[in-house]
Amino acid sequence: MPLLREHATEAVDPAAAKRLGAALAGIHSASPGERATAASPPTGRSRTARDASLSVDGVELTVPTAVRDAVLDLLQRFADGESVVVGSTDALLTTSQAAALIGISATYLLRLANEGRIPVEYRGTHRRFRLADAMTYLQSSRPAK
Questions:
Q1: Which InterPro entries does the record cross-reference, listed alphabetically (predicted)?
Q2: DSSP H or E segment with residue 108
Q3: How far, CA to CA in Å, does 27 sit from each of 6, 30, 48?
């Protein structure tokens, strides 16, 4: 498994965030059926109810609705003025990377791993943490709202 190959992007400027938010409001107000049938797939295969279309630089892409939802979530985060990091959930993190992501010290992360509270893998003598496991721990350690 590769180490985390993330793509980090700073928050967009406030004017761009406002324009993006306005555009997203139009998407969110459309019914899911309208979004999912906006274009026919270019590959010749028939569209299913689980397909959606995205247009990138004029190229129409047919994607599962889960992909569309992830892209919309990403765009909404930019509209909200957030910086964003995109990475694969099966990526492996070093102790320092996982600790920084969770917001704890590397020493405390190692204690959690030794106690079995967060899964750890060994690559030789080096500990590695799956991004998905770090995110699960982060979600479970947050206070309920």
A1: HTH_17, SinI_DNA-bd
A2: helix 106-114
A3: 27, 5, 20
Domain of 101 in residue numbering reads as 92-141
Residues 75 and 119 in one domain: no
User: Residue 66 to residues 36, 40, 63, 69, 105: CA-CA distances in angstroms?
Assistant: 11, 18, 8, 5, 34
pLDDT digits (tens, 9 = 90+) for 45-62: 455 667 888 888 999 989
pLDDT tens for residues 69-78? 889 999 999 9
pLDDT at residue 37, rounded to an integer: 36
β-bridge pairing 7-9 and 59-64: unpaired
Does one domain contain both 16 and 78? Answer: yes
Do 119 and 134 belong to one domain? Answer: yes
Alpha-carbon torsion (92, 94, 98, 100), positive or negative? negative
